[in-house]
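SAMPLE LOG
Freezer: B-3
Tube label: C17
Construct: single chain, 319 aa
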Amino acid sequence: MSIQITTAMVDMFSANVMHLAQQEESRLWEYCRQESQEGESEFYDRIGLATAKKKQGRHSNVEYDDIPHSRRMNVTEDFYASDLVDKEDKLRTIMNIENEYTVAIASALGRQMDEEIIDAALGTAYSGKKGTVAVPFPDEQCVIAHDGAATTGLGLNTRTLRAVRKKFKQSNAVKAKAKQKQIFAFAAQQADDLLGTTEVTNADYNSVKALVDGETDTFMGFKFVELELMPFNATAVTYDIATGAVDGGGAGTLTIGENRECFAFTPKKAILAAMPAKVNGRISEIPEKHYSHQVYGNLSFGGVRMEEVQVIKIYCKEV
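STRUCTURE (predicted):
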């Protein structure tokens, strides 16, 4: 139960409630492959590559492919946020407390959705017939922000964006004639770093400045989504300073906790996110709490990375 309600009593200067700075909705959900699965866990099948064969001659026998099948397991979990509104609090305040609590709870659930999507993108996926095969995020899908010389990592720059774009193309994760841009999730510091590494004389400068100023959200084939929920690196990482590739014997090293783990992914394909039902919200009287009103919201949600080549992790120095 919140004990902070006394700060909103009638003797306040204003009857309006200002919600403290916070992300108010999920920013990544719309770019995921959205499912509404029935059970707590469910399997989603994947079909691999077929191989074309040369016909051996007239009336020759057909040779059949054994097209590989695989699956990924997605597990949903339950989340909720709630608080109580005493009858006495309602008498002493001008605002509609239930409505304001509802906004705060909805915001909390929206941020939780993004945290689950981020974990699905960068964490361990589970594959196999029964979902028992752990698939950690591979080093091959990581790029360190680099300039060809720095040995302790850098902030995001255009050279790194080109490396990410090239990696998508080389793995055929992006269709050759696809018009849909890849999603790039980053934080405010990365937007600022991107502007700082682009000189005024550079033709890209105006585009990057528009991105930082919020006038556009696209640049270099990416649609940028800004949020402050991405984690920092929990382990030291060594890398090739020339290419930014993670390399156990590389000359560059990232210090623990100094680099934001941003990521780029193909929309509607790379990450599957399931929400079995819409967010549930209720306001109910609780007799055991002297008939106070409980404001309650909950959702079931979970996500999984469907294919490694469709997600690229980018380490960007921030500290």
